[in-house]
Specification:
It contains 5 helices and no strands. Helix 1 packs antiparallel against helix 3, helix 3 runs antiparallel to helix 4 and helix 4 packs antiparallel against helix 5.
């Protein structure tokens, strides 16, 4: 079976797990919020993994870096939206606390891949 390069990235694998957790939170939102905040949260979550994958499909390292930066931005967007869910009483602080470390870890992994691409670009022989 063919495996795409992004599937081997731990950043992508962990981001997929986080997206599943985010979807579970969205399922717990009240019906009247599933379209508004729920849709925004799902889109931000999907963007995390989608941009990692899209970046890996690019040839230019500058483009790869760009898509990783978008992915990281989507990660932060999703986190802020879950904070809003807590503020609005749609979920409790325990839900946020239980996945906060996953957001941090995925962010660390995305930035690690990004830094490795930057190091490659700035090597004297590249």
């Amino acid at each position: 079976m063919e495996v795409f390069s992004f599937e081997r990235l731990i950043a992508y694998q962990e981001a997929r797990r986080l997206v599943v957790d985010i979807y579970k939170i969205v399922c717990e939102l009240p019906k009247e919020e599933r379209f508004g905040l729920g849709t925004q949260l799902r889109r931000a979550a999907i963007s995390i993994t989608s941009n990692i994958a899209e970046g890996c499909g690019r040839i230019s390292f500058k483009e790869k870096i760009h898509f990783l930066e978008i992915s990281y931005g989507s990660l932060m967007e999703a986190f802020s939206q879950i904070q809003l869910c807590v503020d609005l009483g749609y979920t409790d602080q325990n839900d946020l606390d239980s996945i906060r470390h996953k957001f941090s870890y995925v962010g660390y992994l995305i930035n690690s891949v990004r830094k490795s691409y930057i190091e490659y670009l700035t090597r004297p022989d590249s």
